[in-house]
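Final report, Chapter 2: Outcomes

The project's central promise was a pipeline that accepts a single protein chain and returns its three-dimensional structure in a standardized token representation, suitable for archiving and comparison. That pipeline is now operational. To close this chapter, we reproduce one record exactly as it appears in the project archive, with the input sequence first and the structure output second.
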Amino acid sequence: HTRDTRAIFVDGHYRPKEMWREAGGAAFNPGNYYYVGGNSKFYGAVLIRYRREDFSEMEHYGGVSPAWPFSYEEFEPWYSRAEQLFRVRGALGEDPTEPFHSIPYAFGPVPDEPPIARARAELKGLGLHPASLPLGVDIDAWLKDGKTGWDAFPNTGTGKVDAQTGPLAAALADRNIKLETGAHVEHLEASSDARTIAAVHYRQNGALKKVTPKLVILSAGAVNSAVILLRSPSPS
């Protein structure tokens, strides 16, 4: 099913077997994927940086977007490290809005297909600045498994660099790091002063388990992170 367009887009073969409800009560099947690598197993692999201005306070038609608590310059080295982990393909100098990069992309951009190349030439002729999107895709490796696009198609090899094949694979090279799969977090247990997380309670293979790490990072997506917090009692 990995390159079967009908299975993916019509049958929803990889989508979760759960239903959520909108504010008005209507049910829908969410676009969340419970696989190692999460939603990034199916993403379009566009790894574009926020622009420098995005970190400052900006006034929009609908109101003011507050400034981030740190600047682009403070964040930039971490962008560069992430791009190395995700082996991003890209080109600097094409997009006039591109902010400063302390490290260039390690690989050149994914080549244009003929229709895109023609569109790029026409846009340049109009004085515009078409730019290659930075992509976490090894196009040759991806196409070996099938002549399809990669957006919404699951990554089963090394063609698309996702959260599993990029940073997680690098982390698991450390013998002190272990990946637990098939685990569903029930709730977080707060410390007595309610300032930190003392334990993570989860269910795995039908058994309730608990871990008590020094540091807990809650990164389960916008909705599931909120759900876990709502299920988590606090002394205060």
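Archive annotation: The beta strands are 20-21, 27-28, 58-60, 63-65, 183-190, 197-204, 207-211.
This record, like all others produced under the grant, will remain available to the consortium after the project formally closes.
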